[in-house]
Every structure is written in structure tokens, then in C-alpha cells.
From TrEMBL:
Pfam families: PapD_C, PapD_N. Keywords: Chaperone, Fimbrium biogenesis, Periplasm, Signal. It is found in: Periplasm. It comes from the Bacteria. InterPro entries: Ig-like_fold (IPR013783), PapD-like_sf (IPR008962), Periplasmic_pilus_chap (IPR050643), Pili_assmbl_chap_C_dom_sf (IPR036316), Pili_assmbl_chaperone_bac (IPR001829), Pili_assmbl_chaperone_C (IPR016148), Pili_assmbl_chaperone_CS (IPR018046), Pili_assmbl_chaperone_N (IPR016147). Residues 1-21 form the signal peptide. This is Molecular chaperone.
Length: 230
């Protein structure tokens, strides 16, 4: 199996593009690591009917450089066509906050093998990277993520929408609107923290409506609140 680890452009002008729309499928959209569990399994399935794929995975703290306190087994392996294998994620034991969730990012790089028939062709190979949120959830947190989302507080400071999260969990928005205007850059608010997002000039009114994304990747019911002015 030959793997090309970078985009390779040969001297000629003709290329064959492989999109591999049926490549490696990741079994979740987010990972919840409960401190009560020994490890978390993330299933990967190779949907390709012919080619194996190379799988490389790691976890970072959010800057895409610093590795997180987790061990992945196996970190690098070959996944044969039409096969499934679990990545097993284990906490390394490094101290983390015990009164709130911590957020990390799971990275999965998938690289298709080159078919024998392509040996003499000019080929552009693509490397795919999937990035998932991993929430470390310690014992003894209060309420639950949906209650935290429902209890968010909203105020306006000049052109900024200020969101306060008093809860122990991260709130990740499915959508957020001020009046009828979407606040598109509003993504996430950390526990016991505030976040600020720019209000579009077209936004008016004081009613805020929002949904968050649950542990299962689906949206919550819609919540609403009246905006306060700072």
C-alpha cells in the first residue's frame, strides 16, 4: 500500500480527482468523556468497497498544537475496506478542573491507499481531517447541559451581545437570534464564563431566541429571553 502524505502534482496537466465520498465514517459528532468511565470508544467505519485507509488520530487543547491529556489506542493504523474499528480514548490522569467541563478537540486524519491501477496515472490524492469536540465531564456537576443552555443570560454592550453562562457545562449553539437576525458567529460559551459576539447592524429588538446542541448531536427545544442593556 502506497500512501501519499501530501498533495502531489505531477509535471503534466491532466489529473484524476478522487473524492472518496464513501471513505471513513466517524461514529459520533462529539465525544463526552465521563470521569466515571475508564475509557471512551469512538467507532470508525471504512465505507470504501475496495481500498484500505490509513487512520491517524490525536487530541489537542484547542490551539491545534498542544496535545491533550488523553491516550488514543491505536494512534495510527490501517482500516481495511468495509471494516469497522474503535478508537479507544483514555484519560492520562493529568489534573483537570473538577467544578466544570473541560473542552478538547479530537483530530482524525484519514488517507486513502493508492489502487494498483493508478500506479502509472497522474493522480491528485486528498487527505481528509475530521475535528470533533471532546468534553471532559468530572463527577458531581450540577444540573445538566440542557438546563445550562436554558439558563444562559443575555445583555447588550454597545455593538456586542454578551452571553453569561453560570452553569457547569459548555453551551454550543445550534442557532441564536436577536429578533429575526441570526448571530452567525456565536458558537460556544464556556462554563462559568462570558462570551461576546458582534451584533449585526440590521439586528433590532430585545428578544433573544436560541437552541443548543445536545450530547447526541441534535438541537434542544427553542428557548427565549429578553435582552438587558448594560
Amino acid at each position: 500500500m502506497r500512501i501519499l502524505l501530501l498533495f502531489i502534482c505531477f509535471m503534466t496537466c491532466t489529473f484524476t480527482m478522487f473524492t472518496h465520498a464513501t471513505g471513513v465514517q466517524v461514529g459520533r459528532t462529539r465525544i463526552i468523556y465521563d470521569a466515571n468511565t475508564r475509557e471512551v470508544a469512538l467507532p470508525l467505519t471504512n465505507k470504501d468497497k475496495e481500498l484500505p485507509w490509513l487512520i491517524q488520530s490525536w487530541i489537542d487543547t484547542g490551539d491545534e498544537k498542544t496535545r491533550g491529556p488523553f491516550i488514543i489506542t491505536p494512534p495510527l493504523f490501517r482500516l481495511d475496506p468495509q471494516k469497522e474499528q474503535n478508537l479507544r480514548i483514555t484519560w492520562s490522569g493529568q489534573a483537570l478542573p473538577t467544578d466544570r467541563e473541560s473542552l478538547f478537540y479530537m483530530n482524525i486524519r484519514t488517507i486513502p491507499a493508492m489502487a494498483k491501477d493508478d500506479d502509472n496515472k497522474n493522480v491528485l490524492r486528498l487527505i481528509y481531517k475530521t475535528r470533533l469536540k471532546l468534553f471532559w465531564r468530572p463527577k458531581g456537576l450540577h444540573n445538566n447541559p440542557v438546563d445550562t443552555c436554558k439558563s444562559l443570560r443575555f445583555s447588550r454592550r454597545a455593538s456586542q451581545l454578551v452571553i453569561t453562562n453560570d452553569g457547569d457545562y459548555y453551551s454550543v449553539f445550534d442557532n441564536l437570534k436577536l429578533g429575526s437576525t441570526s448571530i452567525k458567529d456565536a458558537e460556544i460559551v464556556a462554563p462559568k464564563a462570558t462570551a461576546q459576539f458582534t451584533v449585526p447592524k440590521t439586528a433590532s429588538g430585545k428578544e433573544v431566541t436560541w437552541r443548543c446542541i445536545t450530547d447526541y448531536g441534535n438541537p434542544t427545544n427553542e428557548f427565549n429571553s429578553i435582552l438587558t442593556q448594560e
